[in-house]
Each structure stands twice: as C-alpha cells, then as structure tokens.
Amino acid sequence: MAGCCAALGAFLFEYDTPRIVLIRSRKVGLMNRAVQLLILAYVIGWVFVWEKGYQEVDSVVSSVTTKAKGVAVTNTSDLGYRIWDVADYVIPAQEENSLFIMTNVIVTMNQTQGVCPEIPDKTTTCESDDNCTAGSTSTHSNGVSTGKCVPFNTSVKTCEVAAWCPVEDDGHVPKPAFLKAAENFTLLVKNNIWYPKFNFSKRNILPNITTSYLKSCTYDARTDPFCPIFRLGGIVASAGQSFQDMAVEGGIMGIQIRWDCNLDRSAALCLPRYSFRRLDNRDADHNVSPGYNFRFAKYYSSPAGAEHRTLIKAYGIRFDIIVFGKAGKFDIIPTMINVGSGLALLGVATVLCDVIVLYCMKKRFYYREKKYKFVEDYEQGLSGETDP
Fold first, then answer.
1. Is 256 exposed, middle or buried (0-12, 13-18, 19+ CB in 10 A)?
2. What's the whole-model pTM score?
3. Strand partners for 245
4. Contact criterion met (CB below 8 Å) for 315 and 103
5. How many other C-beta atoms can be found within 10 angstroms of the C-beta atom of residue 149?
6. Is the distance from CB of 232 to CB of 226 less than 8 angstroms?
7. What are phi and psi of 345, to 5 degrees?
8. Smallest Cα–Cα separation from 318: which of 290, 296, 292?
9. Residue 319: its pLDDT value, please?
10. What is the DSSP track for 289-323?
11. Residue 131, Cα to own-chain centre: how many angstroms?
12. Is the pLDDT confidence value at 285 over 70?
C-alpha cells in the first residue's frame, strides 16, 4: 500500500523536462545522421517526388462510346450465302462502357408453338409413355412434357414437349467460329474524361488527330499508341490470347484506359495509356461452362398469320472499357501537412539513438547519469534550512 502511495505521489508531484546532452561518439553520431538521411530520403524522394505529396488529387469521371466496323461473308447449308454487317453482329447496338461482338452462332429457324420431341439425353430418352411425366419440366428442358414417348429419329425415342418447335440442338458448337473473320473487325473507342476539382476535361481523340488520320490509323503500342481505333485480333493478342480459340465459345476482354495527369505541367502531356487483359477465367484444368453466350429471338408472322421465330444462340466476345486514373495539382494544404509529417518523423532518429545510448551501449549507466538529473523542490529545500 505504501508503495502504491509513493508511486502515485511521484506521478502527481514530479515533472519531467528535456535536457540536452552532447555525446561525442562516432558510432552514435553516424547512426543519428544515417537515420536522419533515410527519413529525409523517404520524405523527399517518396512522399514529394514519387507520390507528389505537394498536390491535391482528384479521381477521374468518364464516359465511353464505341463503334464497330467490319463485314463478313458466310455460306452454309442452313443459312445459305449471307453478308454479316454491324447490325447483325453487334448486340445490342449500344451498351454502357461495353460492346458485344458475336463471333459464333447456333441458329434454329422457323420455330412455331406446338409439340415436338425433346433433344435426346439421359433424362429425355424413353421406351414408352410410362417414362414420361405429363406436365413436368426442368431448368434444362425446352418445354413442358406432354407425357408421350415419340420417335426423335429412326433409332431413338424421346419425351414429347409443348414448346417452340423444332427445339434447339446446341450440343455441338461450330468449329472454327462461324464469324472467324471478326478478327479483322475494328473498334473505335471514344472516351471523354473530367476532373471536377480542377474543372479539367479531355478526350482520347487528341487535338492533333484529323478526320483523314482517323480513317487510316490502327492502334499499335510501339508505332501509334494514341490511335483510338483497335483491331479486335490485336486486342486479344495483346492480352496473350488466341482470337480464333476465343471466338468459338466467347469470352470477356478488358480494354483499360489509364489517365494519370500532372496538371502542374502542360495539359498536352495528359495522355491516355491503353492496356488489355482477358477478364473471364479460363483454366485448362477446370473448364466448366467456359466462354460467354446468350440467346435472343427474331419474331415474324407467316402470310397466314401464324407466329414464327428464329432462335439465335450467340457466342462472342464482350469488350469492357475500364477507365481509371487520377490528376494532381499543387496545393498549399497537402504540402504543409506532408512537411509537418516529415519534420515529426525526424524525431525518430533521436528516440532510436536514446534507446541505444541508454540501454545498449557499455557505458549506458554513465550516459544515464549525464542524461537525467534529479532536483528537489526548491521551496522545500529553503524551508529546511536554519538561520545561522
């Protein structure tokens, strides 16, 4: 109890004040200067030069529009001779920050509402009506079962369904890709950016780009890095992928546009940087449900008024345009904050040297005597004196 009271009294009635002690030691002096130099290098080199700690920073606000160009020709037994243009393979015509190019297709033509046999698989094949349950359906079926077992061909029977007939057979994806010529299609990317803090705006079609140049240029990272027109095969190849392999089952490609702008310099030096990567995971060891595809239908009526449709299962590449970056401009507030932080960090050198001198060196007890001096209360000392 007495010890606790003494400790409390020491805490309440004692006061510490810094004392400057000059220690003439090469080891300690060199260590102190080395730590100070490291801190200065960090503050000047990293905080101010590399990270531009003297600038206020803003994030980019962006809008993107795209336009594809290219024509392909196909000649098949199902569709015959056909020309494919932008209206056929860009689905839908406009998306926000992305574009889908159809590269492969399974077409089921002239479907009507009716009853027809299901596509054979382990759940739809049957021997008699007892194998089919009327009214049943599943997520993988093409319609609602009628409960009848009917011939699919001369050798196989399947359960009959009420559906759009004939039902789609998507068991075999065309190889090579139906629109393999899409490798040479081009994509124009128009990107407008804005930094609201600095009221600074720009677009990736730079001021020196003319209409005639835009009609003839194609992006190349080495020879023409600021042309906004990209060859689809070049985009995929830049990501380390094969366009013809990707075109069969589809995929997702990212077109990354980076805007890092130092607004303390000329606005002409604020330029876009393009990079490309495949965004959907494609693992050779685990390749379940690969690629990218969806279905849509085109409806029409026969002269007799019956409703028909053409069902299209479209495989293709979706191009997502991802815009990111930041802009910086000198501002006194972040400058003063970082200068103050740097000065405070210099105190680390003193703390580190104190720890080594007072606790690690051989003469630590000698240095402690010089570092600390105990002084009694002056008034208390006077009251204890007696007159001569």
1. middle
2. 0.80
3. none
4. yes
5. 21
6. no
7. -65, -25
8. 292
9. 96
10. S-S-EEEEEEEEE-TT--EEEEEEEEEEEEEEEEE
11. 50
12. no
| Domain 12-54+331-383: homologous superfamily in CATH | atp-gated p2x4 ion channel (1.10.287.940)
Query: Would you put residue 297 in left (φ > 0), alpha (ψ -120 to 50) or beta?
Result: beta
At which residue do the structure tokens 């392909």 appear?
A: 72
pLDDT > 70 fraction of the chain, expressed in percent and rounded: 91
Q: For the chain, which residues make up each domain, given as ranges?
A: 12-54+331-383, 59-118+167-327
Closest Cα partner for 253 from 297, 292, 206?
Answer: 292
Instruction: Give me the sign of the Cα torsion angle 86, 88, 91, 94.
Output: positive
State the pLDDT at residue 118.
Answer: 93
Number of helices and strands in the chain (H, E): 9, 14
Q: What is the pLDDT of residues 361-375, one digit of tens each?
A: 777 777 777 777 766
Structure-token match 């382990």, residue found: 122
Greatest mean pLDDT among 52-56, 230-234, 283-287 lies in: 230-234
Q: What is the pLDDT of residues 93-140, one digit of tens each?
A: 888 899 999 999 999 999 999 999 999 988 889 999 999 999 988 888
Residue type, 320: D
- Architecture category of domain 59-118+167-327 in CATH: Sandwich (2.60)
Asked if residue 259 lies in contact with residue 322, where contact means CB atoms within 8 angstroms, the answer is: no
Which long-range contacts does 20-25 make (Cβ < 8 Å, 24+ apart)? 21/367, 21/370, 21/371, 23/357, 23/367, 23/370, 25/357
Indicate the pairing of strand 307-330 with strand 251-262. parallel
Distance CA 216, CA 223 (A): 14
Average pLDDT, the chain: 88
Length of the chain in terms of residues written: 388
Q: Express each pLDDT in 37-87 by its tens digit.
A: 998 999 999 999 988 889 999 999 999 999 999 999 998 887 889 999 999
Query: Is the C-alpha dihedral spanning 30, 32, 34, 37 positive or negative?
Result: negative
Cα separation of 135 and 112, whole Å?
20
CB 182 within 8 A of CB 235: no
Helix (H, G, I), strand (E, B) or coil at 120: coil
